Amino acid sequence: MMPLTSVFAFLNNNFRGRLGPVLLLALAATLLPVHAVAQDDRDQQQDPPSRVARLGYMAGSVSFQPAGESEWVQAVPNRPMTTGDKLWADNNSRAELQLGSAVIRLGANTGFSFLNLDDRTAQLQLTSGSLNINVRHLDHDDVFEVDTPNQAFSIFQSGSYRVEASEDGSYTVVSVRQGEGESTGNGQNFTIHSGQRATFSGTDQLRADVVQIGGPDSFDNWAYSRDHRYESSRSAQYVSHDVVGYDDLDDYGDWRDNRDYGHVWFPNRVSADWAPYRDGHWDWISPWGWTWVDDSPWGYAPFHYGRWVDIDNRWGWVAGPVAVRPVYAPALVVFIGGGGGGGFGANIGWFPLGPREVYVPSYHVSREYVNRVNVSNTTVNNTTITNVYNTTIINNKTTNVTNVNYANRNVRNAVTAVPQQAFTSAQPVNRAAVAVNAQQIASGPVSARVAVAPTQQSVLGARAATANRVAAPPAAVANRQVIAKATPPPPPVAFSKQQQALAQHPGEPLARREVQDLRPANAAHPMVKQAPPGKPGTPNMGSQAANQPNGARPGQPASQPNQPTNQPANQPNRPGNQPAPNNQPNAARPGQPSNQPANRPSNQPTPPPASRPEPTRPENNRPEPSRPEANRPQASNPAAPPARNDRPPSAEANRPQPNPSEPNRPEPPRSEANRPQPAQPSAPPARNDRPPAAGANRPQPTRPQPNTPARPEPTRPEPPRPEVNRPDANRPAQPPARNERPPAPAQRPQPDRRQTNPPQPQRPQTDRPPQPERPNNPTPPRADAPHNTQRPPTPEEQKRQQEEQKKPPGI
Questions:
Q1: Neighbouring residues of 401: CB distance < 8 A, sequence distance ≥ 6
Q2: Are 342 and 400 in contact (CB under 8 A)?
Q3: Mean of the per-residue pLDDT values for the chain?
């Protein structure tokens, strides 16, 4: 394609006269806007990200490795972090990273880095340890991904997440308290919903075990307490929620309304001669170049967003519009001197930009980026921005801004200056500052870029002296590959390879295409293994991960204060030694007796199924298996009262007796024990040579039965028998023979059928305590009932008695 200048030269040479100028004007009106738009589109691809991460909080030993470097140094708070930067939180240590739209917290023994961080992508690398992530908002086309050694977890919604990678890289635990995400690995995709905790074990073959999430541990509770500061921050009503670090302003200053600037925040814990951009140091962070790192705990938002203004000899910070997403800037200042000119010598000075003043980046940017970085940080119109952009960047190809009248340049104590060597070596500014007078300030050249090349110390930062003398991750953790779903950018280029090119344009970072030329062709990221396309997988629901004990989480102690050591709270899975409900020994099975287990308390009732046939009775000399009495309360009831002896005869007395040769015949449920009983007179005690009923904790009180001959074998216990569910008031007491039921006595009187009483229905006893269990012994005879006290009837007599009972009355 012919360059635009060549087209104009061709028209000017071939169309002279009146037609030439007309054609040139028409063509310029058509081609210049198109050319400007195409050029700006190409420039936007070179723009740096509009957001970074802030290292906002640290506890314990936290180490930092800049992108592309091999040295680990001691981390410092308020350091901006971007693609390629790494962190290591050592034993008993924690750290917090803030993105504006999300907060990432590192637990102990955690290896972390940013594989990619730009306007739409946050791709995290977790080689070992724990991350607690709170995503505050997520746009439709945003990518938020956590890559571990055996899977890649993609966050789909705003919410609360926790990702843990084992020390050996063999498994990953993903907990979703709120939100939803998807884990990808080994050609499988697993969706994790809110309230679930998934353990992904294996590397060659991914196994997923999903259970209900447990209770929070100390690391989670610490993260929630930090989130509470953000949610309850007073400053949220004055700034955009994407301004990083605004919640720290509450404790170190106050907001006041000003008629010229609106809401203004004033720090209240500073000295009288304090000025912005003085308590901190300068680092070189690619691709922005010289970046301010403040030492104050609140010193992030006011130095990368908004503007500073002097009101009544007090510095105040004016935030940008609340409704506009902010764009990060490395330092919103204007430089003076540098390079040995303007009376500054070798010193470098700067002062903060004021409200409505345009910030001109020193790095390669597009026109659209200049608009966004200014409109989002102060109140200024686009015309002013365009004029400054054309003057300083397009026309002059420099960043000189001498034609702008900056308000803070002439404010007392606003300009800070340090020697060039202190500037490039990241020394504390308040210790290395030099005094400058008003004449030096007025004569010094003003520029958006300080023409000083960085050094290795500039990249490592204020703790460069601690290089390779701090805690670092084990080699196996530092060099471990992770599985990635999204394709990350190529690895960063080391500063040593850029240093020569940076010296040719002092103070100006390399453009992306220049960095690409320094990178080997087709350089793949050595720390990343791309995950193949996945198909929906089926996790094991409700099972416990085999490789992950609940009590020992990656990077955490074996026992957390709020975390059970055996199983997390709300865990639906039963321990291995506890049977499922349908396999419990107490469960009643159809057609089977409801036997009470040995380990079950005897005072816990076991309701029997209705109309259940009784099992076969064993012989007298054989131990009988324990079984509850049908419809009879447990042994926790008080001792049974004497049997009734005043009950009137009923029709049940005339029923034929069961055949002794049929001992296995099913009998109807016994309900005699549940029938309300009237007051009973005292009766002779029952026999005491029988064993107690099944399930009783103590033997039932028994009474000896009078007028009954002693048994031939008094020492042989007779098995308990359930009481017959019919009144036998007129039946004489007879000692039962072995293995058969004793027949009715021959002299048994026949009741009058016309006076029979119907069976009494079962009713709950509401006016008195429940009746105690009746002893399982034959009903004692009535005092007036005839009975044989000499001997038991012979078989012949029993046969005659049965025949007489079969005869109809009156014969």
A1: 334, 360, 388, 391, 392, 446, 447, 448
A2: no
A3: 75
194-229 pLDDT, tens per residue? 999 999 999 888 999 999 999 999 999 999 999 998
Distance CA 417, CA 432 (A): 8
* Exposed e or buried b per residue across 539-564, where buried means at least 16 C-beta atoms within 10 angstroms of its C-beta: beeeebbeebebbebbbbbeebeebe
End-to-end CA distance of the chain: 135
Gyration radius (Cα) of the chain, Å: 46
Determine contact, residues 233/250, Cβ cutoff 8 Å: yes
SS3 category, 223: helix
Asked whether residue 583 carries a pLDDT value surpassing 50, the answer given is: no
> Residue 554's pLDDT is what?
61
**% helix / strand / coil in the chain, to the nearest 5?**
20, 20, 60
More confident residue, 375 or 646: 375
Q: What angle do CA 799, 801, 802 make, to 5 degrees?
A: 65
Dihedral sign, Cα of residue 227, residue 231, residue 237, residue 241: positive
Alpha-carbon distance values, 74 to 41, 55, 431, 720 (Å): 40, 12, 20, 82
Collapsing DSSP states into helix, strand and coil, what is residue 712?
coil
pLDDT in tens, 690-705: 444 444 444 444 444 4
For residue 153, pLDDT beyond 80:
yes
Mean pLDDT, to the nearest integer, of 49-72?
Answer: 96
Tokens representing 417?
Answer: 């200056």
pTM: 0.66
Separation of alpha carbons 782 and 76, rounded Å: 100
Please tell me the distance from the alpha carbon of residue 499 to that of residue 454, in angstroms, as a whole number: 8
Percent of the chain clearing pLDDT 90 (strictly above): 51
| Contact (CB, 8 A) for 525 and 532 | no
User: Is the separation of the CB atoms in 321 and 306 below 8 Å?
Assistant: no
Name residue, tokens 């701090």.
Answer: 470
DSSP conformation letters of 394-443: IISSS-B-TTS--GGGGSTT--EEEEHHHHHTT--HHHH-B---HHHHHH
Alpha-helical regions (H) of 147-240: 218-231
Residue 37, pLDDT above cutoff 80: no
Distance CA 98, CA 136 (A): 11
Nearest to 385 by CA among 30, 394, 29: 394
